[in-house]
């Protein structure tokens, strides 16, 4: 697999160990700009570990990854957020006691600049920036389809809304790549369907999407390419059709249901 | 009746100071889950720096009010640097250590600061120059002077400013986000080390102001003034619910009132057995009572939801 010129994220031989256990071993993959790339595999296959590495939560032990032409081995999450990687979490991690609008406004942090001086003096620039942040946050709330009062605390939103709010908060950082960790978990069929539409809209706006998902139907129907992880190794990669027919994948993960 | 009103006024003045210092404890706890026991010493350093600056400037013949303003700014700046340094040296290296470790370094920093202050400023009591007009006003039979009025006014302004900052600005939002969920805040692009530094600096600036207030009110400064004041402000923060900003303000004012009324009436209530010199006992009696009956404080939520 040769790295492509138009790839946004490239992992080369990335390994991560926890004690003696290889959570990821020599995983290489590339994600092209503008595609929806899926990551599937059984529980414990290393999907979330991979997410944590590319978002800076974990340091990788071997290998490196490139994002948007720059190599990263280990750096702080806020630096990667600034570089253009935003994510959501498998278990929702909103700022529970802040309003829906404020949650998104925090996402704007990395693209705005008012510091302690501006905060203390509330000068013209600080106030203009604050208005712009609020404005953008409102747009994003509408974009992900959360209506109703913006001042509702995040913890009082419905489950589906909380998932959408996480996406809106991630989008507020103006990412080049949006990484979603099981966004459809716990959603009913209708919610999953509208999530699918939302992700397509996001991709059409030029943002690359990296998706971990257990909902095989969703991932096969949505992704341009898919990688399959098992015990920390990449066992297959390709278009949904290729992956669906791959015997190794069927044995390790898909089982009979995709036959 | 006028004695009662007088005690209320005294309590409010003292409570305003407690509230400002308590905010420093509660802000740090809200974000790091750490009790910064060196915070009382920051108050003392603020007072000491203001003392030195005003002594130097008064000698040049500048008007007292201007001297006070300059002393205030220098003291606040010095305390901000100090607060930043304390966090960098004593707490940040222990960010992921067991919770007992930073508690011990906090006590260590407190002892170091006290002793440094003793070396620089000596172990004697210093007279704090009178920089404010000291007119007396009568209010329904009670007396209040200009310094006390200004203390309450300034405390009110600082607290309003802090609330606006925390709830209406980008910086305040980042502070709340870090308090709620540090890892999510980090992944949304918030540089949490920076936010933590700023939190320490803001708390220390409030401490400097409080230090000057105490000094101006009593006219006396000494190198261990921070320890008892710090403990009482900590009590106030616990009373209001540590980690909660409104709680710190409420707790500060309440503690001031409890002390003042307690000291005023303990003589009558105990038939002269206890005198007003037992004033300090009340704060710690309150601390014990809160810890027994309402450990989360008046406005505190469950620890998991500190805000």
Written description of the protein model:
The complex is a heterodimer of chains A (259) and B (307). Chain A has 259 residues and is an alpha/beta fold. Chain A folds into 2 domains: 1-84 and 178-185 and 212-259, Rossmann fold (3-Layer(aba) Sandwich), CATH 3.40.50; 87-174, P-loop containing nucleotide triphosphate hydrolases (Rossmann fold, 3-Layer(aba) Sandwich). Chain A has 10 helices and 10 strands. In chain A, the strands form 2 sheets. Chain A has a 6-stranded mixed β-sheet, sandwiched between helices. In chain A, α3 crosses α5. The mean pLDDT of chain A is 89. Chain B is mainly alpha-helical. Chain B has one domain (2-305). Chain B has helices at residues 2-32, 39-59, 64-91, 100-121, 146-168, 170-180, 182-187, 192-218, 225-240, 245-269, 279-293, and strands at residues 126-127, 136-139, 142-145, 220-221. In chain B, α2 (39-59) packs parallel to α4 (100-121), α9 (225-240) runs parallel beside α11 and α10 packs across α11. The longest helix of chain B has 31 residues, at 2-32. The termini of chain B are far apart. The chains are: A alpha/beta (259), B mainly alpha (307). At the A-B interface, α2, α3, α4 and α5 of A face α5, α6, α7 and α8 of B.
Shape of chain A: globular
**Fraction in beta strands of chain B:** under 5%
Radius of gyration of chain A: 19 Å
- The N- and C-terminal alpha carbons of chain A lie at a distance of 27 Å
Percentage of residues in strands of chain A: 15-25%
Report helical residue fraction of chain B. over 70%
String of helices and strands of chain A: EEEHEEHEHHHHEHEHEEHH
Average pLDDT of chain A, rounded to a whole number, is 89
Number of domains of chain B: 1
- Discrete helix count of chain B: 11
The biggest sheet of chain B, with number of strands, parallel, antiparallel or mixed sense and barrel status, is: 2 strands, antiparallel
Strand order across the largest sheet of chain B: 1-4
CATH architecture of the largest domain in chain A: 3-Layer(aba) Sandwich
The radius of gyration over CA of chain B amounts to: 19 Å
Domain module count of chain A: 2
Tell me the structural class of chain B.
Answer: mainly alpha
Unreliable segments of chain A (pLDDT under 50, ≥5 consecutive)?
Answer: none
Order of helices and strands of chain B: HHHHEEEHHHHEHHH
């Amino acid at each position: 697999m040769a790295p492509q010129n138009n790839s946004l994220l490239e992992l080369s031989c990335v390994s991560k160990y926890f004690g003696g256990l290889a959570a990821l071993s020599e995983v290489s993959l590339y994600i092209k700009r503008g595609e929806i790339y899926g990551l599937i595999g059984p529980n414990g296959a290393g999907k979330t570990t991979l997410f944590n590495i590319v978002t800076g939560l974990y340091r990788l032990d071997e290998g490196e990854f490139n994002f948007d032409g720059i190599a990263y081995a280990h750096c702080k999450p806020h630096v990667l957020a600034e570089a253009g990687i935003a994510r959501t979490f498998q278990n929702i991690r909103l700022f529970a006691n802040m309003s829906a609008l404020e949650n998104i406004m925090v996402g704007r942090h990395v693209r705005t600049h008012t510091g302690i001086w501006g905060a203390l003096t509330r000068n013209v620039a600080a106030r203009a920036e604050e208005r712009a942040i609020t404005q953008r946050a409102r747009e994003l709330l509408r974009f992900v389809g959360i209506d109703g009062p913006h001042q509702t605390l995040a913890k009082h939103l419905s489950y589906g809304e909380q998932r959408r709010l996480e996406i809106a908060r991630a989008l507020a950082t103006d990412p080049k790549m949006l990484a979603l960790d099981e966004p459809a978990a716990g959603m009913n069929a209708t919610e999953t369907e509208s999530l699918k539409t939302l992700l397509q809209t996001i991709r059409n706006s030029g943002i690359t999407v990296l998706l971990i998902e257990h909902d095989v139907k969703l991932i096969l129907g949505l992704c341009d390419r898919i990688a399959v992880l098992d015990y920390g190794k990449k066992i297959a990669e390709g278009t949904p059709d290729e992956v669906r027919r791959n015997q190794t994948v069927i044995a390790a993960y898909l089982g009979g249901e995709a036959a | 009746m006028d004695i009662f009103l007088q005690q209320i006024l005294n309590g409010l003045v003292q409570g305003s100071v407690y509230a400002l210092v308590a905010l420093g404890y509660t802000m740090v706890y809200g974000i790091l889950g750490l009790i910064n026991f060196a915070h009382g010493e920051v108050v003392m350093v603020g007072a000491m720096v203001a003392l030195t600056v005003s002594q130097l400037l008064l000698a040049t013949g500048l008007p007292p009010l201007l001297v006070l303003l300059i002393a205030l700014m220098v003291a606040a700046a010095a305390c901000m640097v100090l607060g930043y340094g304390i966090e960098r040296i004593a707490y940040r290296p222990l960010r992921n250590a067991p919770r007992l470790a930073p508690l011990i370094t906090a006590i260590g920093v407190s002892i170091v600061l006290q002793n440094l202050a003793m070396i620089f400023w000596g172990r004697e009591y210093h007279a704090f120059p009178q920089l404010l007009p000291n007119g007396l006003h009568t209010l329904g039979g009670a007396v209040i002077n200009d310094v006390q009025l200004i203390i309450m006014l300034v405390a009110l302004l600082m607290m309003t400013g802090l609330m606006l900052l925390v709830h209406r600005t980008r910086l305040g939002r980042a502070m709340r986000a870090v308090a709620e969920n540090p890892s999510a805040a980090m992944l949304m692009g918030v540089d949490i080390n920076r936010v933590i530094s700023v939190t320490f600096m803001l708390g220390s600036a409030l401490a400097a102001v409080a230090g000057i207030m105490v000094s101006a009110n009593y006219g006396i400064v000494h190198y261990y003034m921070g320890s008892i004041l710090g403990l009482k402000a900590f009590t106030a923060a616990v009373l209001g619910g540590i980690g909660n900003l409104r709680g710190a303000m409420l707790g500060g004012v309440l503690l001031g009132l409890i002390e003042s009324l307690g000291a005023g009436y303990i003589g009558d209530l105990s038939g002269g057995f206890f005198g007003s010199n037992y004033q300090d006992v009340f704060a710690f009696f309150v601390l014990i009572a809160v810890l027994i009956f309402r450990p989360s404080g008046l406005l505190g939520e469950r620890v998991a939801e500190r805000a």
